[in-house]
Amino acid sequence: MSIKSLQRTTLRDQCLNALRSAITTGQLPPGHHLVETDLSNAFGVSRGTLREAMRRLEQEGLLVAGARGQLSIRYIDSKEVLDIYRVRTSLETLAARLICDQPEREAHIARLAAQAEKMARLEGNLTEQIEADMGFHRLLCQLSGNEVLLKTWATLEGPIRICIMSAGLERALHNMAAERHVRIIDAMREEDGDRTAAVLANHMQEAALRLSQALHQQADEQMR
Fold it and tell me: Is 199 exposed, middle or buried (0-12, 13-18, 19+ CB in 10 A)?
């Protein structure tokens, strides 16, 4: 690998991360059309580098192509939020059950607790808080030891990111609060897979309802 190609890859990744963060935090809202010239100037990269990043985000489910091929930020409605969270709940409750059955359970719980502590420290920094929240749930799936489960969850990561800020900052901060995640860890410490799954399912259902109800209300207001 040449130094030149390494620099190019790094620049693309920096552009990818910056664009993903702008979408996830709501700086680029759902439905917003992306203008290549504006973004390439803002990021200080070539349009070719920008297009590589945009193609990756389209694959992740953060961007969608319109009739003329122009990319825009994906919009998710209230029904789709519920659909995403139903699948997510099934995956993560299974992951929690698998962790509870493992001999390494205590070590895994300690890693999740450390991630929850990180979430608490980062409260107030929206970008880092979102990444810590995603990191907690990704780690939960990783520690399950089930690669198919983890890969399936990864396909939802882009849509989950869209969901986080879709109903506004206040609801996003509530859903990402570290204390809500500590309840999951406390249930896991009881070594009861059924109780842990129930606590996690409630965690997801509460978040999904908050998001879907807000989006439904927004849609009603736009129709008036």
Answer: buried
